[in-house]
Design brief:
The protein is α/β, with parallel strands linked by helices. It has a single domain (7-188), classed as Glucose Oxidase, domain 1, CATH 3.50.30. Helix content is 29%, strand content 25%. It contains seven helices and 14 strands. The strands form three sheets. Strands 1, 2, 3, 4, 6, 8, 10, 13 and 14 form a nine-stranded mixed beta sheet that branches. The protein has a three-stranded parallel beta sheet with strand order 5-7-9. Strands 11-12 form a two-stranded antiparallel ribbon.
Length: 227
C-alpha cells in the first residue's frame, strides 16, 4: 500500500482584511492589472460563466485529481466568508468539478466566487446563487470523490501561480490575481492609474482623436512609408 497521502491540507492561512478588499471594490479590472505591472489576468480559456457581477475576495486554493473533486469537498469544511475558491483540475476534460448543490453549501459559507480551469455543471442552479463563476466551460458529467486532493497549497492555473491568501478580483471581463505581498504597492499605484484614466476620459469627451504618443513615435522611430 502506498504511503502517499490522499489529502494534503493547509487549512490555516491569513485572509486579507475586509477593509483592504473594499478599497478594490468598484475599480475596473483593467486599472488593477495596469497597476499590477500589466499582469495578473488568468488565461488558459478561463472565462465568465454566470453571475459575474464584480467581486473581490481572498483566494482559497484547491487542487483536484483528474475527474475527481474530493479536495473541493474537504475545502468546503474550512471555507470562510469572503473566500474565493480557485480550483485546479488535472486534465479535467470529460466532467465537471462541481455543480449547484456543492456551491449552495459554498454560499452558506460566504464564498464569493469560484474560478476553475475545468468545467462546471447545473448552470440553471448556479444562476440562482450569489456566487460568481468562471471556468473553461460547462459539462454535465459528474466527478468522482476518491482523491488525491490538495487544499490550501499553491497552484498553477491560467498561467499564474496562486497561493491561498492572495487577492482575487473579477468582473464581466475576467479574473485577476494580486499577490498578497504586492497589495499595498498596487493600491498606491492605483491612485495614479485612476488619475490618468479619468484625465484620458475627459480628453476623449472633449474630442481627442488619437494620443500624442503616435506623433512622438513617428518622429523618434525609423518608419517605412508604403505608397
Amino acid at each position: 500500500m502506498s504511503n502517499n497521502p490522499m489529502l494534503t491540507i493547509a487549512k490555516d492561512f491569513e485572509r486579507i482584511p475586509e477593509e483592504i478588499l473594499k478599497r478594490f471594490e468598484g475599480l475596473p479590472l483593467g486599472w488593477i492589472c495596469d497597476s499590477n505591472g500589466r499582469k495578473g489576468t488568468l488565461g488558459g480559456g478561463i472565462r465568465p460563466i454566470c453571475n459575474n457581477k464584480p467581486f473581490v475576495g481572498t483566494a482559497f486554493t484547491v487542487s483536484c485529481a483528474a475527474a475527481d473533486n474530493l479536495g473541493l469537498h474537504v475545502a468546503l469544511k474550512y471555507a470562510k466568508a469572503g473566500d474565493v475558491f480557485v480550483v485546479k483540475g488535472e486534465e479535467f476534460g470529460d466532467c465537471a468539478v462541481t455543480g449547484d448543490l456543492m456551491m449552495g453549501m459554498a454560499q452558506n459559507n460566504g464564498v464569493r466566487a469560484l474560478i476553475t480551469d475545468t468545467h462546471l455543471r447545473d448552470r440553471d442552479g448556479l444562476e440562482e446563487l450569489e456566487i460568481a463563476f468562471f471556468a473553461r466551460g460547462l459539462n454535465p458529467n459528474g466527478p468522482y470523490k476518491n482523491g488525491p486532493g490538495k487544499v490550501g497549497l499553491p497552484i498553477s492555473i491560467g498561467g499564474c501561480i496562486i497561493e491561498s491568501g492572495d487577492l482575487i478580483v473579477g468582473d464581466l471581463d475576467n479574473v485577476a490575481v494580486v499577490k498578497r505581498g504586492d497589495v499595498d504597492a498596487v493600491l498606491a499605484e492605483l491612485e495614479e492609474t485612476a488619475e490618468n484614466e479619468k484625465a484620458a476620459e475627459a480628453r476623449i469627451a472633449d474630442g481627442q482623436k488619437y494620443m500624442p504618443l503616435a506623433d512622438e513615435m513617428l518622429t523618434q522611430l525609423k518608419v517605412k512609408w508604403v505608397e
